[in-house]
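Treating backbone geometry as a discrete language has practical consequences that deserve illustration. Part of our work consisted of pairing the sequence of a single chain with a tokenised description of its backbone. We regard such an encoding as a compact summary of how the chain folds. The amino acid sequence and the backbone structure tokens for this protein are reproduced below.
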Amino acid sequence: FPDARLREQRLADSMGYVHAPSLQQATAAAVLRSGHLANRDHTSGAFDIDLRSHHVKRAKRLLEGVANGQSMAALLGYRFERALRDHDLSQHILDYRKQFPFKPTGPGPETGEAIAARDVIDGLALLSGYRDKGLDAISPATVPAADRPKVKVFIDDLIDLIDSVSDLLLSESVYQLVGGL
């Protein structure tokens, strides 16, 4: 489904018709469209699926990291820290690590099965705090007000990434469901 911001254009262009290479893909698109139409007035953004290629590529990279044994929280933390470093805000990484420490779970290096992430921000806790309390409440006191809008951009990017993963997993689930798998 195209971006929700293009809703008027989408209605004018396709009138709801979808061209799909297979019957299973067409059925999945119809189910997702039906879900969107049934819930468009009740919830904000329900079934606004965005499967544009750059969203899918980003989501797949994150899911590949999870498949390789890393946790979603650590991967999001790595991305957040990388954004801080790339934009000359690395002096705030330690403060965010203290505010949102990552506590690894599952098999650790002592079992020899996997190497758990250490010394990284818990990205899921960061996003949860941001959604519940807002940027000013979750930002450490040492982060100046001038840097907070830059940090907000990085957090919003993580939220977009999580939304892309959600869209990809939901659409794949519906695709598998209508295919009887």
Notes: The CA atoms of residues 4 and 48 lie 6 Å apart. The mean pLDDT is 85. The chain is about 60% helix and 0% strand. The radius of gyration is 19 Å.
